[in-house]
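In response to reviewer comment 3 from the previous cycle, which asked for concrete evidence that the modeling workflow produces usable outputs, we include below a single protein chain processed end to end. The sequence was submitted unchanged, and the resulting C-alpha cells are shown without manual editing.
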Amino acid sequence: MIKFINKMLKKSKLHYLAYILAFIFWTTGKAQHITRRDYIKKYAPLAVKQMQAHRIPASITLAQGILESNNGNSRLAVQGNNHFGIKCHSWEGKKIYEDDDKKNECFRDYKSVLESFVDHSLFLKKYDRYNFLFSYSIKDYKSWAKGLKTAGYATNSKYPDLLIKLIEENELYKYDNQYDKDDFVALKRTIYLHPNKIKYVIAERLETYTIIAKELNIKTWQLQKYNDSKNNNKFNSSRIVFIQPKRNKCKKRIHLTNKNETLYDISQTYGLKLKKLQNRNPSLGSEKLKNGLKIILR
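The workflow returned the following C-alpha cells.
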C-alpha cells in the first residue's frame, strides 16, 4: 500500500512539473510575440533611415518587413534576423534553411535586424532588374509595390495588393513624408563591413570616385585601385565602393554565374582582387558571361 502511495505521489509530482514547464513555455512564447503595432513602432526608424540613405520608401520597407516576417514572428526573423525573406544567392555569411517555393531553401542569417534592413536596401540597389523602381516618386508606394512584383521580388500574384493594403490600413505612407532631398544630401555616408571583412560605402548614380574620396578624406587613385578601376566617370547606377583593399580569397570556392555578369562584377560581389580572380579563371576575359558558368573563387 505504501509503495502504491509513493508511486502515485511521484506521478503527481511529474504531472505538476509538466504543468509548470508547459505554463512557462506558453507565457514565454506569448511574451515574445510581436504585434503589428509594436513592429511598426520598433522598426519605423530603421525604415526611415534606409529611405534617407537609399531612396526606398519607408512605407514599402515596413510593409515588406511586416508581410515577409509575420510582424517579426517568423522563424527566419526570430532565429536569423531575416525580415525580408532574402535568400542566400552569393551570400558568404551565416545561413539558415526554411521551406519556401522549394523544400529546405537557403536564406541569409543576419547578426542583427539592422543588418537585415541594410541588406534589403543593398539588395534592391544591386540588381539591375530593380533599377526602374528608383524613377518613381518616394511617395508613390503603389507603383513601388507593383514594380517589386514585376521585377520578380515575390511569386505571389497578390503581392502588390497585400503591400498596399498594409500601407493604407496602418498609415505607413506617413513615414514617407520624412524624406527630404536636402537631408539626403547632408546625410553622412554610412560605412559598411563586407562579409569578406572589407569596409565599403554605397555610391549613388552620377557620383564619382573623386566625390567619395573627398568625403572620406582619401585619394581618388586609392579608391580606383581598391575597386580595380582606371576611370573616374560618373556611375550609371548605385554600387559598392570599397574603401580598403580587396582580399586575395574568400570562403566560397565556386560561383555560378548569372546571365551578363562579368569577372569584375563577381570580384566586387565577393570582395576579391580582380587580378587574382583572372589568374584562377585564365580562359575568361572582361566579356559578359553566360548563365551557369563555374567561376573558381579560391
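The two ends are 74 Å apart (CA to CA). We consider this sufficient to address the reviewer's concern, and the full set will be provided in the supplementary archive.
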